[in-house]
Amino acid sequence: MKAPLLVLAGASLWGMIGLFVQGLYKEGFTPIDVVALRVYGSALVLFPFLAICKPNLLKIQLRDLFFFAGCGIVSIVFFNLCFFTVIERSSNSLAVVLLYTGPVFVVLLSRVFFKEPLTGGKSVALFLTVIGCILAVGLIPAGDSHMSALTVLIGLLSGFFYALYSIFGKFIAGRYHSVTITAYSMLTASLFIVPMSGLFQKTSQLAHVGVLLNSAGLVLLSTIFAYILYTAGLSKMESGRAAILATTEPVVAIFIGMLVFGDALTVWQTAGVVCILSAVLFTIERRLTRTA
User: What is the pTM of this model?
Assistant: First the structure.
């Protein structure tokens, strides 16, 4: 039961990210700046902490750098960039729906790389997840007839790159602590994205109280703790099931919208939340039954 709870906790912290991202947008930061701030800030916090408190966790084998770079560059950087691009080109709702095709990619890729069985239970949970996400973000019944094929492709790529974190992470989750994986993933992501961003041209803005608070929330809560919890849970369960459980993130995001921004939850969104929670509970129940 511990592993599903760790994944759920990590996903819930991911669901809070909109609070901090919107705050940084108001301060004049661009999507690529926010991605750079997220990974660079995380690396700056994690490495000094580990060097002082847990230096043994910084030890890695050079042959595993490929997997750390996969988690950091291929997954974290590119899924964020694709996700924010869809928001700019279309809407947040479409971006979230396409991002959460990720569990479908995880289950399929896990079947290829890890020979994880594509059971009837996973199929039902995936179906509920996809339908739930579509309903929860309001794509149905409103729909969106103005989306371009390129926008849809970029959105699907966000889901694909999002899924790759579970795939790359699974190769090394059993050999390293979740904090180690998170730290080196953020380091490789930083080395790639920071030089392409305008972050260092906005150093004066980083001292503003609003920027500091939102940056702290983005880095500590929605990145470091979220990835550590998710990776810790991933190391103790199948990547396909972990990805399905992680779809609690949009549910958390919807409730935050209601409580903080006064968003109303429609009947369709309520049905979507029920579908997603049903998929989560169904996944946990099947795991408990199998391990009993």
Answer: 0.76
